[in-house]
Structure formats: C-alpha cells, structure tokens
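Exercise 4. Each item below gives a protein and its sequence. For each, produce the structure-token representation.

Item: Sigma 54 response regulator (Candidatus Scalindua brodae).
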Amino acid sequence: MNKILVVDDDQNILNVINLRLEANNYCVATTLQAEAAVKMAKNKNFDLAVVDFKLVGKNGIELMGELHQIDPELPIIILTAYGTIADAVQAMKKGAYSYLEKPFNDQELLLQIKKGLEKRELSNEVKRLRDIIKGMNGLENIVGESKKMKEVMGQVIQAAKTDSNIYIYGESGTGKELIAKKLHVASSRKNFPFLAINCAAIPETLLESELFGSEAGAFTGATRRKGVFALAHKGTLFLDEISEMPLTMQAKLLRVLEAKEFRPLGSEKIVKIDTRIIVASNKNLEEVVKKGTFREDLFYRIHVIPIKLPPLREKKEDILLLAEFFMQKYTDKMKKNMNGFSASASQKLMLYHWPGNVRELENTIERAVAMSVKDVITEDMILPTRESENKGLQPLKSAKADFEKDYLVQLIRLTHGNVTQAAKLAGKYRADLYELLKKHDLKPIDFKAGRGNADHLKC
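Answer:
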C-alpha cells in the first residue's frame, strides 16, 4: 500500500483529501504544520507528498526542500491558490513533480498521484539496478539475480577450483564465452592467457595449424607459428562451436586431451602442454553423437563438468538488470545522458520472448540509445531485431506458460510482494495466486526489496 504525506493548514481540506485517498486504498498521513511533516518524513518512508504552497511559518517550496533532503526522489505535488501560476512555475523549477490549483477536482488529484507514484516506482527500480551495477568490475561480472543464474554461478565457482574439462551449452546469445572467461578469472590460471577460438569460423584446412601451430613449409604458404594450445600454456583455451569440428580433427583433439602433448604441423618436436580446456556448443551434443557427426569418446572426454546456460526467456528477472547495464555501457560510449526506461518500455522488454537472448537484448538497447533524442528510452524505441522475428513461433503450451509467468512477475513486482493486493488486481483468490506463484517458482519476498519498513505505519 502506497504511503502518502499530505500537508495543508486547512483542516477541512486535509479531511477531504484523506477521505478520497483512503477510499482508493492509499495509506495517508496528514498534518497542519511543516515542522511536523519533516519529523514524520524522517520516521517513515513516504512514496509521495501533497503539500500546500502557503503554510503557517513557511511556504511549500521551503518544506519541499527539507523533504528532498530526506528523500531526494520523493515526488511532491504542490497545491496552489487559483491564479497563482507564478508560484506553481517556481515550485516546478525547484523540483516539484507537478501542481494543482485549488479548488481541484478529485479525479485530477488521483490522476496526478497515480502518475507521481509511477515515476517513484521507476526511480526506485533504476536506483536498485544502478546500485547493483556499481559493484561490478566489468561485463564478466554480470550474472543476474535470477535463481537459474545463481545456480550457474554456483557451478562456475565450484568448477573453477578444478582443472577438469568443462562443457558449456545453451542457445546462441546466452553468453557462453562470457562464462568461460569467468571460469578462467576465478581459477588459479587467471594470471596466464585466455584464448578463444570458434571452430565453425575456421576452414578445415587451416584448423589444425590454428590449434597446434606449424613449421615453415609444412603446407603451401605455411610459416613458423605457435598454435593456440601452445599460446594458452598454463592458461585456458576456449573452443566454441565444438560440434562443428570435422571428425578428422576430433580424433587429433582427443589424442591431445589424453596425452597432454602434440606435434606442430611439419615438426618432429613434441610439445607438452598444461592447458585448461573449456568447450561450448549451441547444439545438443548427445544428439550430434547419435547422428554420427561427433565422436562419442571425445564427448565423454570434454563432458566432465557440464554447465547449461538458460535462455533469457527463462530468467526474466535479469532482463531489466541487463538492459540497464547495456544502456549505461552505450550512453558512456556515445557520450549521451540517459536516465533509464519508461514504464511501458520496461514492460515491453519483460514481455518479449528474446529468441536471440542476451546478444539480441544488447543489440536492441544499443540501437535504442543510438537513435534516442530523449533522455528516457520509451516503448516505441524497443525494436526487436528482424532476425529474431523470423525465428518462428513458440509452441502454444510454452507461449502460455511464458505469458503466465511474465504476468505474475509484473503483478508481484507492481505490488512489491503484497500477495493480497496482487490477488485483488488479478481478480484471483489469494490461495489460487499462491499456487500460481509456487508453480513458477516465484517468491513474494524477493520483490519486497527497497520498499522501506512498513511496520511503523498503522495502515
């Protein structure tokens, strides 16, 4: 329940506003005096204040300044007498959210309060996301707050303590190389090289020399060079798209993994290595093994510690965190001044299916920042990529489940974990809503952060 402070030196006006707001399920605190209002604001966390311009002892602008010292993000609506537009303009310049002329219409007051609370909610979300991002040392540390990503990071921490081969799998754009880098920097090998190679991007005729190196004259145009296995000695080698490696190279890779040594092309010298191997694929390797295009013995050699990365649609809780990060990344890069996302833009980000996953989300935010002429990213600027739109529809069952979970996340976020209020908004029985939350592994307590302590309020 939103908490609203109302300050006016006319008791009749206080009574009217109090009656109207309580009838619309707001928790209201009223006072006739500015000094009392300041004391109340220090003891309670208000979501919005309605302040009369003319008060006994000081004006509303002076009181607004004191309230903003306590809570700089508090939206304040100034009540002014009829015809005092100059006072209203002055109040807006000093930081008022909006103003209303007396006598005011009840519906107009309620509309202004609703909009002010939406602004407050957006400011709180932006602050929360930025507080999280402040503690990050770079893109490697963006792992999300969702349960699934916390499980992934738990696996990363454990796997980083070992030298066992690691297999990372998941859809394109889920951040497999990012996790590989995280594994490297969390390991005892962090002070040695991390090298990455995409097996699908290198022609078969060049892949062997790329991996193991060559001597001059080993093949037409060959020069003496080290391969990535040697360059990554004592460090980590990340082999992406391992499923695309030709069968002939798979056999050679298997021997290297077993013997920890290899012979560069055209050389008689054996090179011994101590290299941590991490591989990745966006295909189900077990299925590729069944088709006969991937060696079963190699599969078991690299499949010692499997780590599955969930698609973005299965960790919706991370979308706004990632979007905020990418917005800051590209506003810094493009030297723009952006203040976040509108409520409708945030909703669109949460509802979209993201078949391109984190990569698609980053591209979308980069484009929105580049094309923006405002300081806020609005709904019309969130344009999913054409590539993702052509990926096809989900099965109906999956689409319904995703929509249901998205709806619940937005509902419980909107009510800050208040299940009773959420049930009323959804038109559901409280017990039924609890069952739906349980079904999608959503805990109301996870959405209560940053809302202040309501225990000291009577309402």
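Check: Residues 48 and 113 are 8 Å apart (CA to CA).
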